[in-house]
Amino acid sequence: MPISTLTTKGQTTVPKKVREALALEPGDKLSWEVRDGRVAVTTERPSLLDFEGFIKNSSGDVVAELAEARKRRGRV
């Protein structure tokens, strides 16, 4: 299990193995949740559904449009 140390300023470094496992990059947001004396850290990435209406001339169904685009490109 990766371990990091808390600095006097309350900062820590996310261990490299964790950054790689979560594909974290500089500027990514992390959410901290305390439950029963334990902490869960998750990434704050936008959901695919957050992009609804973003595609020009969209039918509004982003998931279906992406599935169709993947089929056209052979990436099912």
Task: Describe it.
The structure is a single chain. Helix content is 22%, strand content 16%. With 76 residues, the protein is an alpha+beta fold. Strands 1-2 form a two-stranded antiparallel ribbon. It is elongated.
Structural topology:
Layout: H1 16-21, E1 30-35, E2 38-43, H2 62-72
At a glance:
This protein is an alpha+beta fold and 76 residues long. It is 22% helix and 16% strand.
**Proportion of beta-strand residues:** 15-25%
What Rg do the Cα atoms give?
Answer: 18 Å
Tell me about the largest β-sheet: 2 strands, antiparallel
Shape, per Cα inertia axes = elongated
DSSP summary, beta strand count: 2
Count of individual helical segments: 2
Q: What share of residues is helical? A: 10-25%
Provide the descriptors you would attach to this structure in a database record.
single chain, 76 residues, alpha+beta, elongated
